[in-house]
Design brief:
The protein is of the alpha+beta class. The chain has a single domain (6-135), classed as 2,3-Dihydroxybiphenyl 1,2-Dioxygenase, domain 1 (Roll). The protein has helices at 19-30, 68-76, 90-99, and strands at residues 6-15, 34-40, 45-52, 55-62, 79-87, 110-111, 117-121, 131-135. An 8-stranded mixed β-sheet has the order 2-3-4-1-5-8-7-6. A hairpin with a 5-residue loop joins β6 (110-111) and β7. The radius of gyration is 15 Å and the shape is globular. The mean pLDDT is 95. The structure holds cobalt (II) ion (CO). Cobalt (II) ion is lined by residues 11, 13, 58, 82, 84, 132. The site of cobalt (II) ion has 6 residues, from β1 and β5.
Length: 136
């Protein structure tokens, strides 16, 4: 068996309308604390990361009306937005997607939050789930 390119679940991203309310829900209900917050203007989002063992729950809210997350909330409502898989080599994992006929959103790896390198894989061709490849 060959080694999997996916080494860990990095984060599960949930699109929310009210970031503060979602943070309060996770804190009050589960005792989960925010370990990182970041506004990513290039993606039109603000995120809060809650640590769950070696992974995160990423609460995601749009900062502009034209953000893809704003569009997502409009059409699908709040809920699971994407799954971030940790990879050792984002470029190699992205190439494997292309080699296997998958559709990519990012043609090449780019900077993500927390100083990571990321690339998104289109849900069409990935069984309906938006996938983010995350290299730390
Ligand atoms: Co993400």
């Amino acid at each position: 068996m060959t080694q999997s390119l996916l080494t860990e679940i990095d984060h599960v991203a949930i699109a929310v309308r009210d970031l503060e309310a979602a943070i309060a829900y996770y804190r009050d209900t589960f005792g989960a604390e925010v370990v990182h917050r970041e506004r990513v203007d290039s993606d039109g989002v603000e995120e809060a990361l809650l640590e769950v063992a070696d992974s995160y729950v990423q609460l995601l809210t749009p900062t502009t009306d034209t953000s893809p997350v704003a569009k997502y909330l409009e059409t699908k409502g709040e809920g699971l937005h994407h799954v971030g898989y940790r990879v050792a080599d984002c470029a190699a994992a992205l190439q494997s997607v292309k080699d296997h006929g998958g559709r990519t959103i990012d043609d090449a790896p780019r900077p993500g939050s927390r100083g990571t390198t990321v690339a998104f894989v289109h849900p069409k061709g990935a069984f309906g789930t938006l996938i983010e490849l995350v290299q730390e």
